[in-house]
User: Fold this.
Amino acid sequence: MTEKKKLYIETYGCQMNFSDSQIVGSIMADHEFETTSEIAEADLIFVNTCSIRDHAEQRVRARLKEFNRYKKKKPGLIIGVLGCMAERLKEQLIEEEKMVDVIVGPDAYRDLPRLLNIAEGGQKAINVILSADETYADIDPVRMESNGISAFISIMRGCENFCSYCVVPYTRGKERSRDPETIVNEARSLFENGYREVTLLGQNVNSYKSDKGIDFPGLMNLVASIDPALRVRFATSHPKDLSDELLKVMAAHPNICRSIHLPVQSGSDAVLKRMNRKYTRDWYLGRIAAIKHYLPNCAISTDIIAGFCSETEEDHLETMQLMEQVGYDYAFMFKYSERPDTLAAKKYEDNIPEETKGRRLQEIIALQQKLSHKSNKADIGKTFEVLAESTSRKSANELAGRNSQNKVVVFERGEYKPGDYVQVKITSCTPATLKGVVVEGV
Ligand code: SAH
Ligand code: SF4
Ligand code: F3S
Assistant:
């Protein structure tokens, strides 16, 4: 028997990229490769990359230098760059980073075995063709590093929103939706294998639309109906597509989690317009009101960009005021990073000084810290159903899990184990976690 070759894969960026790495793991497993978590024993190193901000690309370049040290010790070691950076830079990346042998864009992973053959023959190999219909629907992901309880299911790919700051429409191509039957089958099979939570993934999940006429609320209805003990989450939604119909479907299924990630980016109409977000502040607040109406106990989180082109101090204050008004439970906050060839790079000057960007971001982070803490403090005394996921990082006697609102809850383990649903009454909190005690017989 020949020993299998070993693939080490490192992933950066969003959940879609992590989900894609599992698809890559599966394609490679069909071609005599097994994955390893030990870089030193790898015959092949893949890095699945992100281009969303300059910093993300710099981290990958630093890692490539590191991988090159292994290559020098092990001639024949192949290094491949996958994902958004591969798609954005194409052959330019091979010219700039000589250690790279293979460049593969997000829609070309089926071609990996052929590309590897070329690389094994000593030549550079590249495929960055974007597809209008590739969804990898028939590929069963290898769930590496999974806790066996929660899993991601990719339901659509690509984005055509062209927010002016964003590189994703260029690196991920056209929007396309995966066949609903394959999604439902994957979710059902995960449930039958002990999983208790699935997160439906896409750059913009609520613009899901299958050839069979099923839209996102329809799909959610199908997945949530598999079993009441299977939790369903989704990420990310664009505010423009968050329909009342979706909120009604959520309200009808207690197992659809009470948590919506609704990136606002800015609280200023002038900035939103330049960002090409296609909604106004008022319109966004209307969507927040609809969430609160249909799902009174729903957590709301967001993404914010500080220091976009020509953002004034007033614009910035409007963002902070909107954050207070919505009372976000959680937020991802970033400094604007200009991306080459995007609409903003072509049309607007990146004219906010680094120092101002940094100061505004710090103010936004400090405010969110306060809001998150306030939101957690409001949970003290409440009882939540928590899906236990793992042993707590701090103590072996404690389990950590999440409630429907996606907040991390830590409690004493007792007889419980990961995968159990546990009723927990919250007794204390930090800005990041809730702590509680198990209540029996509820
Ligand atoms: N598809 C998702 C988000 C994709 S990227 C959506 O539209 O909601 C995740 C977040 O990164 C974005 O919401 C935005 O806040 C941030 N982001 C994207 N491009 C950026 C840039 N050029 N500079 C800084 N942050 C950016
Ligand atoms: Fe980027 Fe906008 Fe698409 Fe999100 S919706 S991926 S921010 S272009
Ligand atoms: Fe990054 Fe590409 Fe995701 S740019 S955020 S890995 S879609």
About this structure: The first strand starts at residue 5 and ends at 11.
